[in-house]
Description:
The structure is a single chain. The protein has 283 residues and is α/β, with parallel strands linked by helices. The protein has helices at residues 20-28, 37-46, 61-73, 94-103, 115-123, 140-150, 163-177, 201-210, 234-246, 251-262, 266-276; strands at residues 5-7, 31-34, 53-55, 78-81, 107-109, 130-134, 156-161, 182-187, 195-200, 217-221. The strands form two sheets. Strands 3-2-4-1-5 form a five-stranded parallel β-sheet, covered by helices on one side. The longest helix is centred in the middle third of the chain and has 15 residues, at 163-177. The structure holds S-adenosylmethionine (SAM). The site of S-adenosylmethionine has 23 residues, from α5, β7 and β10.
Amino acid sequence: MAGTLYLVPTPIGNLGDISKRMAETLAQADFIAAEDTRVTVKLLNHLELKKPMAIYHRHNTEAGGRAIVNRLLSGENCALVTDAGTPAISDPGEELVARCAALGIPVCAIPGPCALVTALAVSGQPTGRFTFEGFLAMNKKNRRAHLEALRQEQRTMIFYEAPHKLTATLQDLTDTFGPDRPLTLCRELTKLHEEVRRTTLGEAAAWYQKNTPKGEFVLVVRGAEKPEDLEPTLEDGLVLVNRLRHEGLSLRDAVKQAAKELGLSRNQLYDASLSGGGDAAKP
Ligand code: SAM
């Protein structure tokens, strides 16, 4: 029987975020697949664990993934970790999970630290509907296409960004969404110098033109405003009256109901129905 691939999140800055289940899963796995063994060894030392490790990072997903899958197929259990946060979220792991899913190898995700969820929760922006955009591409054409596709996006948008690219990204976001668009800039979440700045794209872009960005950032950008609901017109009223008439209502009742639903004047709608209301006035 195949073993299980466990996706084990690790702290994004605060070792206090290690959960009992995370620690137990690492302790019980036959081996740990890590993005950078030097980073993971520090975590294992903290937990007083010694484990065989395999390397799995974005440059060896093919060979590294095949080797891990073979061990899983032979019955070993693997705990996948990355340098910080939840594996497979803008991190190595996505391909490995897909490979396991295709082969019917069980995958178990342990819930835990994830920068995008932490940032969204603290942002003060609408959280009911959101879209995670990850990192913008470096390539200018792809970057522009990505931003263009978001121009009308009404959901809250979450971006990851590295400090050396932050200034350019803030400028590109400002150019796309305008300087007044609300932004929550989350820096060094869960760390000693955690900062949550509720500002606008224009202000943040101007600030980082003058101040060098330091640390890790998540940008939570408010979605576009909904277009104002258009006021119902007499035309809309006539369409509704016609529909209600076809459903069997008398002209008087159809006008009454349509006027109430759309907030129109009953008399005006009645007159319009009698004069130019298509088949509204027909019995
Ligand atoms: N898998 C990780 C997760 O669950 O969030 C994300 C890994 S991705 C390679 C790294 C990016 O996550 C950083 O560039 C930054 O945008 C964001 N990030 C990670 N830790 C953070 C922190 N403590 N504060 C703010 N952003 C962080």
